[in-house]
Amino acid sequence: MDSRYFRLLTLFLMLTPCVGEAQTESARIYVRQIHFKGVTRINDNVLRRELLQLEGTYLNTTALEQSRLQLEQLAYIERVAVSFEPVENVRDQVDIVITITEAPARRYGGGGAYSESQRGSLNGYFTNENIFGTGQRFSARVDGSEFRNVAELSHTDPYVRSDRVSRTVTVSSRQSDKFTADTTELEADLATARLEYGFRIGESQAISLGLALHGVDLTTGALVSDQFIDWVGNNGNPSLQGTVVSTDFLVAELRLRWRQDTRNKLVFPDSGVQQSLTFRAAVPGSEVEYYAVDYGLTKYWPLNGRWTARFGANLGFGAKYGSDTTSLPPYLNWFAGGPNSVRGYRENRLGPRDSLGNPYGGNLFVSGQFELMMPLPETWTERMRIGFFYDLGNVFSTESVSFLDDGGQSLDYDFEFSRLRQSAGIAAQILLPIGVLRLSYGVPLNAEDDHPNRFLRDDIERFQITVGVDF
């Protein structure tokens, strides 16, 4: 029996009327006061708003336990212990004492990552999860690589209203020379201000609703594809200086997101579901008008007590609307191939190719992954996973974007089931002190790596590695 409930049961027996006394109903124990101990940096109301067990009501062990769990979920609390104190000369009342072990609220550091498409990157961050004891969060982040720089400031008030509605204000700047290491150069400057409200549904679900204002500048490079010239020259407020085409535009974007997370662990879970659905759309009257929907699902479940199965699926679709926009902005396109979609194919190289033969991405993305992770010695399970996988997916273009091969023949990148690329192989994830190392060896099952048309040829890359580093 849990020690918390053992103490509660003992107290209950102490307060229950003696055997032989007349009783018409079970005695109830009432909570007179709730006290917090060990608190030095957290305001009292920040703790009390997490409580489901209230003062002046009868003792509810379920609500008390849920209150303890909610307190422990706060980033600035390490541990919570609950005890009881009888009220002198009162037989049916107790005081609850909640002892808090605080965790550091301020975190700072940096890290890095490597993948084939994004190459190496470095980042730094500072976060205060409990500004002035209010439970509000402030964060600053910078991220840089050889072709992309990002800076972001964010503030979150988790209780902007008493009914647990959160509000987040974010400003960010993103500058890039290209979208991935293999795409054609396109200079993109995006400045964003976003206001978002979050609503919690139970303990595992949340909905957020927000409005973002984007200021976008796009400029073609020295070697530019026909597709980029066409989009930049026909959307927003285009201009031409010599051979360089550029455009700028403002977009007010509405965003709605639903999330669910029932995983039993954040790192290497073996049961539960994580899924999200995001809808974003430019508000009518914006200088570029579009919408996009993105759905992601990951499900874990144990098999035969030791094996773990994982199924993942990702679906994305976006398109323009209105007569003044030709297609989805290219910086919103999806890419396919590699560790996050179809292993065994070169990262982000599947799907439509621009006039230079480089990946252009697409407005329709389909991906599915199934993994069967083998049992390992108990001492390894928290730090390593090894298993077999089957992947399928691709990215497609269903809008009126023109693609031509070297001979001037029109290319069709519309969706067909036969174009869903497949692979199978073995993969490993290793949790290192500096981050997670992901390795995979995939064998393409229906690749067209010898297609005579280079614009329809698949790029194979059987061994792949990605790594995330924190320091």
How would you describe this structure to a colleague?
The chain is mostly beta strands and 471 residues long. It is 8% helix and 49% strand. It is built from four helices and 22 strands. A 16-stranded antiparallel β-barrel has the order 4-5-6-7-8-9-10-12-13-14-15-17-18-19-20-22. It has a three-stranded mixed beta sheet with strand order 1-3-2. The protein has a two-stranded antiparallel sheet with strand order 16-21. The chain starts with a helix and ends with a strand.
How do you describe this structure in short?
The chain has 471 residues and is mainly β.
List the helices and strands and how they pair.
Layout (H helix, E strand, L loop, with lengths): L2 H13 L14 E8 L6 H5 L12 H12 L4 E10 L6 E10 L3 E10 L3 E10 L8 E9 L2 E14 L3 E12 L9 E16 L3 E16 L5 H9 L4 E3 L2 E18 L10 E11 L7 E14 L3 E14 L23 E2 L18 E10 L10 E13 L24 E12 L2 E10 L15 E2 L1 E8 L1
Parallel strand pairs: 1-3
Antiparallel strand pairs: 2-3, 4-5, 4-22, 5-6, 6-7, 7-8, 8-9, 9-10, 10-12, 11-12, 12-13, 13-14, 14-15, 15-17, 16-21, 17-18, 18-19, 19-20, 20-22
Q: Write the element-wise H/E pattern from the N-terminal end onward.
A: HEHHEEEEEEEEEHEEEEEEEEEEEE
CATH class of the largest domain: Mainly Beta
Q: What is the CATH T-level topology of the largest domain?
A: Porin
The helical percent reads under 10%
Strand content: over 45%
